[in-house]
Write a structure and sequence with these properties.
Blueprint (H helix, E strand, L loop, with lengths): L7 H14 L6 E12 L5 E6 L4 E6 L1 H4 L10 E12 L4 E14 L1 H15 L17 E6 L4 H13 L5 E5 L7 H13 L4 E8 L13 H9 L4 E5 L7 H5 L2 E2 L3 H8 L3 H40 L1 H44 L1 H6 L4 E4 L2 E2 L9 E6 L2 E6 L8 H6 L1
Helix pairs in contact: 4-8, 5-6
Amino acid sequence: MQAEALTVTALNEYVRRSLAGDPLLRRVSVRGEISNYMPYVSGHWYFSLKDDSSRLNCVMFRQYNMSLRFRPRDGMNVVLFGSAGLYVANGSYQFYAEDMQEDGVGELYRRFLALKERLTAEGLFDPARKQPLPLLPRAVGIVTSASGAVLHDIVTVTRRRFPNMPLVLRPCQVQGEGAAQDLAQGLVEIAQLDTVDVIIIGRGGGSMEDLWAFNEEVLVRAVAACPKPVVSAVGHETDVTLCDFAADMRAATPSAAAELAVPDKAELLARCVGLHASLWQIAHGTIMQLAARLGDISSRLDRQSPEATLQRLMHRHEVARKALDVVVNNMLSTLHTNLYRLQSTLKALDPQQTLKRGYVLALHNGRPVTSVRHAPKTMTLLFQDGQADVRLLSAQREDQSDEHKN
């Protein structure tokens, strides 16, 4: 009689209990190289432990990894302490790590560090070599696999940000033997296209072995020597390759690479509108300032024009003329007054006036006789209304007695 069939859950639960019940699997230490390390938001760590022949899925929950003094990374050799078990939900066999100790560095990671140190010494990763990304590329080159989520993510983001942005794909092998050479050749070919102004190179996430092509010297040098700006988008955010150091810009994901390489068309248009408004305001303000200066200069020129100067001189002449008229009139008035006074004085001293009062003037040869002592024998007496010739009969001086006394 055939036994009753088990459910998947029942079988997985049986295997889990069997593994959990095995004392050899309860406290196990296992040595290997970490690969495909992925920390989750929850704080749990998921990764693989591998050696030359096998790979073991591992998980280290948050309550265990919080006490570690180091952060694991791909390529690191470690010793795990924990137990082997089965995850019932998907029937996967995995190792539940409760502690972890460093056990040296894996071969791939040693090669990574050695090449990184040598290329750094050459200056291949020098920030001064980095090229700025163009604000508005004419076309974006893409060097990656023709299939997979990388190309899809880049196209999706580009079409959202700039719907009519031309994209040029150079499909390449991104993993395995010859991948680095193919990627380097693809980078050279796409950089020769005149319209391509920026290039995205990358692939999806994976272990250090999966991403190793992007640590090969031939590709790293090709990225550093590329005449066009290169954005590296290799793996997940925690994955680091030498292409990331050589590229002009590193993006955490392919979508982020597209965000960096392709501008937002709506944002550019809004900036253009804003710049146009700012330029108009600046131009208008400048024109207003220049108009004010021109008006000031025009006013100054008007004030300094020959016509204005002539008008000012004529005005000054008129003011001076009027002032001179006042001065002249005052002077004439004064002169008239003085003349009248002099005329009155002269009139008072006029001999004719004296003659009118009954006096006569004795003349001899037309000259007045002023002294009895010098009186001639004949004289002419001048009256107010005529003259008479007379002969001197006698002359007597009034001071004669005084003279005899002396």
